[in-house]
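Please check this one:

***
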Amino acid sequence: MMNLWHLRLGIVDEQAAKVEVPMVARQIRYYAGWADKLHGLTVPADGPFRMQTLHEPIGVMGSIIPWNFPLIMYCFKVGPALACGCTVVLKPAEQTPLAALFISKLLYEAGLTPGALNVIPGYGPTAGPAIASHMDVDKLAFTASTETGKIVLDLATKSNLKSVTLELGGKSPFIVCEDADVDKAVELAHMALFFNQGQCCCVGSRTFVHERIYDEFVEKARQRAVKRSVGDPFKEGIEQGPQIDTEQFDKILKYIKSGVECGATLESGGERHGNKGYYIKPTEFSNVQDDMLIAKDEIFGPVQTIFKFKNLDEVIRRSNATHYGLAAGIFSQNIDTINTLTRALKAGTVWVNCYDVFDAALPLGGYKMSGHGREKGYDGMKNYLQVKAVCTPLVNPAWL
């Protein structure tokens, strides 16, 4: 299990060595253990028949993965597909193709059957549709934005009606209840938002804070954001590097401008860091209203939006008032509050007094427009299997 709450963020090498590479190894080992356990059932019959189910590979799996966690997204798709006996055609993001090529080379060196795994680097608008609409691809697994997910799903439907799993965007609530230790809640909410420059689908991008502790939380969150070190991610002590590219950089700055124009209070950041590169100062908004763009849209950057709430009924309603439903966070010591929120929140993953805790055996996926299906764990295996029912007559069975 990798718990990002215990990670001291620093240079790129530290994130790769302490988070991504161990998670990839754990994921591949986990699914390797499933490869010889995908058996069906013998089903009791009401007559002289032998009935059973068989689990068979779905066939050729097409996979399209994003740039923000190229190694982790790779193993989420490739691990279960290979364990189920599928062949894989994978397109990495054009920004990060080398990780998929390198790890695939390692798999072949380890003895993977030639042709079982095929990596096809290419641009999203060309290589992506080619895979999504190909008549010989039996199943599609896609991770990226909800907007692009709609396009991919449409192409799959218009081709051979291939099975599709989608892990898409999010606008996840992080709820800080009135009994919270404010210092601990500030640090966890900070990590939940700013990790990986805010470029995470599960990012806790809507921070709901109870009115009793709201002002204290906002001030301490502002101080934490100001202290966050930004710069060359290969240098020790740096917590935040650049955004992925100019498109994402410009998009984030437009959302920040929108937040200011709509009347949210800019507590920190709000502008470029330095005079070159795609660096953005850690940005915090308070007094955010639910109808603002920064409250509704997935920004995918280092922008924390803090909301005030009065009671559980209110925060449940507001947390669920979104098209997304990927994840949620709860910070409370009250077991009754925790039980109420974990069941009421419409999200595929709910973290309690922690955030971004992942494990190979724990499924990941979303409600509503955050996607279809689940990845990781046993539930992730189901995406790559067909279930066949077999019925055979029995003549004079001794046991009847």
